[in-house]
Amino acid sequence: MTDILDSLPYYDNDLDAHPNLRQKVERELAREPKPPAALHPRIAPEYVLFAKNEALKTELERVETHQSFTPIDTHRYQLPAPALPGSDEEWQSALDNARAQLEHQRLRQTNISLLQTYGPNAWRIQNYLLEADVTQVEKALEQLQTLTVEINRERKNEQTRIGSQLTSLETRWTELLSNVLQIEMANVALDAEINNLNKREAELSSVL
Per the record, what is one GO cellular component (predicted)? Predict the structure, then answer.
């Protein structure tokens, strides 16, 4: 089946040549119904980041809304002593807090030691994986951009070729139409001349 092209945007310049046409087109477009809000079924749905991690999702929403970071509560890292003389319950609470702080510091030392031992390699591996992902994405983007440029170039070349053919055909049609009109006018003139000659012949015949 032959493709029917009723518009050649790379070739047509009617809107630029005739400004009143642009106004008519804009009025017609204003009457058109609004495009549907739903996307095309072939378009993949929007990807929701951190859908399974509520903490990271909340943090992402905070960054997107430009909200300030919630200050860290340092109260639990303090070692307030009860007011002297203090009750047994107050001293026991202070002692429990000191033990919790000591355990926290011990865990921090353990984590720091593990990070110093295994952190650099894990960081390098993660960077390598991220760089590989970035390379793949950039390559895919480059391929899509190249494909887009090629499609646009082919579309422009095809429309330019078809537009040139249409212009040539329109010019030829105008020439043929002009020739037909000239021939019709010549026929009318010949018919008038023939009628005049017939009348003249009739007049001469009557005289003779």
Answer: Prp19 complex
Rounded CA-CA distance 178/188 in Å is 15
Backbone region of residue 126 per phi and psi (left: phi > 0; alpha: psi in -120 to 50; beta: other values) = alpha
Computed from CA positions of residues 198, 200, 203, 207, in that sequence, does the dihedral angle turn out positive or negative?
negative
Task: At 102, list the tokens.
Answer: 């000591």
- Report the candidate in 9, 36, 38 with the shortest Cα–Cα distance to residue 25: 9
User: Residue 10 carries which DSSP code?
Assistant: T
- Report the length, in residues, of the chain: 208
Please tell me what DSSP assigns to residue 75.
Answer: G
Q: How far is CA 173 from the centre of its chain?
A: 41
pLDDT digit string (tens) for the chain, length 208 residues: 455 556 787 787 777 777 788 888 888 888 888 877 777 788 888 888 888 899 999 999 999 999 988 888 777 777 878 888 878 888 898 888 889 889 989 999 999 999 999 989 999 999 999 999 999 999 999 999 999 999 999 999 998 998 899 889 999 999 999 999 999 999 999 999 999 998 888 888 887 6
